[in-house]
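The records we work with from here on pair a chain with its fold. Each token is a code from a learned vocabulary of local backbone shapes. A record is reproduced here so that you can trace the correspondence yourselves:

_____
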Amino acid sequence: MIDIEGRTISQVLDAAVVQFGSDPMLVVPPDPERGYDRDGRTISYAEAGKIVDRYAGILRDAGYGYGHRIAVLLEIRPEILLIKLACAKLG
């Protein structure tokens, strides 16, 4: 269990990456009818942490930060959660 009291979403994710590293965080089940990840996909906490850090870096380098609004059009895909977490990391 991770103590979330007084922590930001980003701090909780960082703690989850350390505690649950190789455990699945996001699971997309197989679905041959879906337009993406037809064979399914699993993203571990460690992988998610790296992706979130990369997205946050890209956004930061583009000039985004605290107080900015970011719109993303991704349908209902795992990346939408990862980008939301990256935005939270920026503040």
About this structure: The chain has a mean pLDDT of 93. Strands lie at 24-28, 41-44.
